[in-house]
Sequence to fold (214 residues):
Amino acid sequence: MKQWINVALPKGRLGENVYKIFDEAGYSCPSILETNRKLIFENEENKIRYFWVKPSDVAIYVERGAADIGVAGKDILLEYEPDVFELADLNMGKCRMCVAGHKGFRDNTARTLRVATKFQNIAKRYYAEKSRQIDIIKLNGSIELAPILKMSDVIVDIVETGTTLRENNLEVLEEILPISARLVSNKVSYKFKNNEIMNICDRINEICSVKDDK
Ligand code: PRP
Fold:
């Protein structure tokens, strides 16, 4: 008998596009398209249940088993290192993790570099590899303000279109790594619902690799 699969989707534009992929893969759930404040949607026939969560929380739901699978950004996976399996690269939600700062910024290595970021572990690892001493300033949003107000020298943040940096007279100084959305699975679910999860993963891989060729 087919088992229910619980899927944590990231709220927002990325999640809506991810749902379209699941839909195309044969896991539709039309009620999800209704505009209301509901958080959980299920399709009895497909035995699939979706819920919308904050993008940065997807990996927590999957790690704890509240969701069997989910879609999370590689940035979140690298920052929090949740105990989940990464099954596929969806080639969506693409952006770059970068060091950014004022145009023409030169690092004065005689001083500790002040780095503002939401991604303190990624930043710490990056600078540790370069043996550069830093002072992390952990922020939760609007990171670009920090160098503008001279609270930090640089930021480590996501750059997607580059508009936020451009409109604030900042620029990319170094690229740390490319980021994209990943399909992740709870480790226990992967074992006990392996057929269902692998079917979803295979279909999604097919669809996403075709899309990537376009
Ligand atoms: C993210 C990121 C940048 C911006 C980059 O912020 O932290 O600020 O998007 O996108 P862009 O290159 O297309 O301009 P988000 O919108 O998540 O808001 P936040 O300031 O609350 O982090």
Q: What stands out?
A: Residues 141-144, 157-164 surround PRP (CB under 6 Å). The mean pLDDT is 95. The first strand starts at residue 5 and ends at 10. The CA atoms of residues 164 and 210 lie 31 Å apart.
